[in-house]
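so my prof wants the structure for this chain in the C-alpha cells format not the other one, which i didnt know existed until like an hour ago. anyway here's the sequence
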Amino acid sequence: MTDLHERHRAVIPDWVALYYKKPIEITHGEGRHVWDADGNRYLDFFGGILTTMTAHALPEVTKAVTEQAGRIIHSSTLYLNRPMVELAERIAALSGIPDARVFFTTSGTEANDTALLLATGHRRSNQILAMRNSYHGRSFSAVSVTGNHAWSPTSLSPLQTLYVHGGVRTRGPFAQLSDAQFVEACVADLEDLLGHTHDVAALIAEPVQGVGGFTSPPDGLYAAFREVLDRHGILWISDEVQTGWGRTGEHFWGWQAHDRNGPPDILTFAKGIGNGMSVGGVVARAEIMNCLDANSISTFGGSPITMAAGVANLSYLLEHDLQGNARRVGGLLIERLRGIAAGVPAVREVRGRGLMIGIELVKPGTDEADPQAAAAVLEAAREGGLLIGKGGGHDTSVLRIAPPLSLTVAEAEQGASVLEQALRNL
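here's what i got, hopefully its the right format
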C-alpha cells in the first residue's frame, strides 16, 4: 500500500470507493491520455466519470480559466456575472425548452435536487415517479429517487417515490416483448400506477441510465409517457447529466430520442459542460423556474471561473462537431466491441450509442451477473494501459466506456484491442 493510500484511508470515509486493488494517483493528462504518479500512461475511456468530456488539458479551456482567474475567481450570484449570463443564454437556446431559464449549480446531484424542489413546489406535491435502475446523485433527496440499491444508502426521504418500468430494455418482465409491445406495456404500467396515487409532481428519468450500466428504453418511450403525464399535469424532468452535449452521437440531448411530444419541462445537466470544472445546472420554463416563493441563491454555482470554462468548452464542442465525432467513432467502436463479444461467452450484451457504451458480463451460460468478472476486466484493462469504469443495477457487472468526445479512430482501436485481450483472458 502506498503512503498516499494509507493517508487516504486514515482521513477519507470508507464509503468513498477507490478503483483497483492498488489504487492509482493520476497526476496529469493531455488529450485522451492521463499519467499516474509512477509515470505510467493510460488511454482514458472514462474521463473522470464522463466529466472530462472534450479532452484533458484542452488549451482553449485552460486559457479561459487562466485568464478569468487573473481577473476574479469568485463573486456569487448576488452580483451580475457576464460569463454566467453568456453561458445561460447559449444553454437556454440549445435546450429546446421555450422561454427557458437557467440556474447553475456545482454538480449533477445539486442540479437534480434543485429540479425536484422546483417540481414539488410548482405542483404542490411531494410524490415523484422515477425509473427502476436509475441514479440521480448522492444528496438526501437524490438518493431517494434513485432506483439502484447500491447507490441508495437510506430509505428515509423527503419524497414519496414510485418506480416505473422502462429504463432497462433487456431485463425485467417486459424484456421478451418487441419494442412496440415494450412501450405499450410500460405505458400501461404507468397508467395503472397513477390510478393508485394522489397528485404526482414529476417523472424524473435518464434517457440513458448512466450508473445503471448505460441501459435505455426503445426510442419514443418517454414521448409515450408524456401523453399520460400531460393528462395528469405531471412534469417531466430529463436528467441529462451523462447524456447531454452530444455524447450519444445521434442527438445533442438524450431527450431528443423521445421528442414526439416536445421537450421536457425541466432539464438537468452537469459533468461534461465544464470539462472537469465543477458545473451543473437546471433549465426550465419560466413559469416553473420562477415558482419558488422564497429567496434562493448559489454561493458557488455560476462561479465566474467555471462559467468561463463552460463557455470555452461549449464553443470548442460545437465548432469541432464533437457530437458528430461521437457518432462516427462511437459507431465504429461499438461494432468492434460487438465483434469481440461474439467470441466471449461471459458477455451478455454490448449496448449504447455514440461514446456511451456498456458491456454487461454474466456467468457463461446463464443470465446471472458476474461482478467478479467485471472487476477482473477493470484490473486487466489498467494493466494494459486503459482506464474504464463499471456499474450496472445487477451487482455492478457492466463495463462502462465513455471516452472524451474528441477520441480518434486509432485510439478507439487501441482501446478495443486492450479490452479484447482482457475479455478473452476471463
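also thought this was worth mentioning. The radius of gyration is 21 Å.
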